[in-house]
Sequence to fold (366 residues):
Amino acid sequence: MNKQKVVVGMSGGVDSSVAAWLLKEQGYEVIGVTMQIWQDETEQALEENGGCCGLSAVEDARRVAQMLDIPYYVMNFKSDFKKYVIDYFVEEYLHGRTPNPCIACNRYVKWESLLRRSMEIGADYIATGHYARIVRLSNGRYALQKSATASKDQTYALYNLTQEQLAHTLMPVGDYTKEEIRVLAEKIGLRTANKPDSQEICFIPDHDYAGFIARETEGRVPPEGNFVTSDGRILGRHKGITHYTIGQRKGLGVALGFPVFVTEIRPETNEVVLGSNEEVFGNTLCASQLNFMSIPMLKKEMEVIAKIRYNDKGKPCKIHMQDEQTVVCQFHEPVRAITPGQAVVFYDGEIVAGGGTILKARRNSS
Fold:
């Protein structure tokens, strides 16, 4: 009987390195692949950017594959990454929303593009080093289950995967804690055992989002405008809406005698609304671009735990369909900084029920 073939997306980090080793131990025919996504062709720029995009990542992954005695390839996905991640990121900010590029990258590059290419070379599965688990439910659907370690669970960033993608994906790291993975890496002598996790957005290593957007659009960025209160009173001037996100306090340069925060961004009038901390809280959101996972669709009101950002612990809420494309999520207690453009992910216990992209929030009137 032929071994099942799995392509492991290797970022050069410890998690994907151990994922490849675990799968080989389990008897799979393992092929290591690093996705080339960085746009700049110069070696210096690639090296400086590091993370999952740099030359050091390729070198680390290549050496791990050599040690594990598995074939290794670099696949070029630069055009897909530009289209589905960078262009999307820029357009969302230009429209006053705060995007999540990692979710877009997971859905359209790390899965859609890699899975298609892997199937073309005869693979049965792809695999990654994500901290999540895939389960087949009694209704026949595939869904994500939270990882063994709450502190490293990555299901939030993977809620948008399709049934087809889940059916052809393995996530062997999901049954372990980060500490256990590092111990395994040391035990088998992997050079990536103590490599630090990559942080922030890989294609903006200096964290200057507004500067990146200005360069990408050749200066086609929203101009300066007014800081206003929710009822329209002018408080001062802002640098352009791409500099701000909901809940932001730093870098506003407005003194009102009490701490002020960004509570809303109005691209149609080029205004940034400021208010007190209380005004950052809301209890209702609407979301679209939905992907249901444990259920084919939401037919009736459902009690779930909803997370509105990656590090969010989640809050109880009720969800129901407003129309065929929009879900309404009503929290039992107010939550802070509901941000248009970010994902909301719904959990039914340990299982991902689904999620979507936040369209708008309704804030407390008190």
